[in-house]
Amino acid sequence: MGFTLTDGATSGGSDPKEGGGGGVRCESLSAVVSNCVFRTNSAMYGGGAAYGTFYSCTLIGNSGYIEGGGAYSSTLRNCTLTGNLQIGQGSGGGAFALAIAAGIARRRRRLSRSPRWRGATRA
User: Residue 18, Cβ neighbours under 10 Å: how many?
Assistant: First the structure.
C-alpha cells in the first residue's frame, strides 16, 4: 500500500503549473504514483493531483478552485474519485482534462453560480 496525502495546498496563482496539485504535482505524465490516497487537498487546478499517471489511487474530498477538484491534466487508471469539488468558474468536479481507464467517479459536486460545465469529469 502507498501513502496518504492530506490537507495539502498550492501557493501558486492562476498559472496551471504553479497552482496545480494540492496533494501532488508531477513534472510530467511519465511520473507514476500508485496505491495512494489523496484526501482534502486544495489547489487552483487539480486539488488532489496534477500532471501525473496515477494507478489504483483514491481521491476523496479534494477541491479545485478553477478546474478539476480531484485531478487535473493526468491519467487515472483504476482510481476512485469521491466527493471532490470544483468551486470556481471552471469545470470537472471529479477531474478535468485527463484520461480515465476503469475508474469510478461518484458523489461529485460543483459549487458555482456559473452553469457552463457540470459533472464528474471534463476531458
Answer: 14
State pLDDT tens for residues 27-68.
Answer: 999 999 999 999 999 999 889 999 999 999 999 999 988 888
Positive or negative, the CA dihedral 27, 23, 58, 84 is: negative
Query: What Å distances lie between residue 56 and 1, 4, 81, 119, CA to CA?
Result: 10, 13, 11, 22
Predicted TM-score (pTM) of this structure = 0.80
E strands, 61-98, in order: 63-67, 71-72, 75-77, 80-82, 85-86, 95-96
Confidence at residue 54, expressed as pLDDT on a 0 to 100 scale: 93
β-strand partners of 37: 4, 58
Position of cell 468536479?
A: 93
Instruction: Kindly list the domain boundaries of the chain, sorted by start residue.
Output: 30-43+55-65
User: Are 41 and 7 in contact, with CB atoms under 8 Å apart?
Assistant: yes
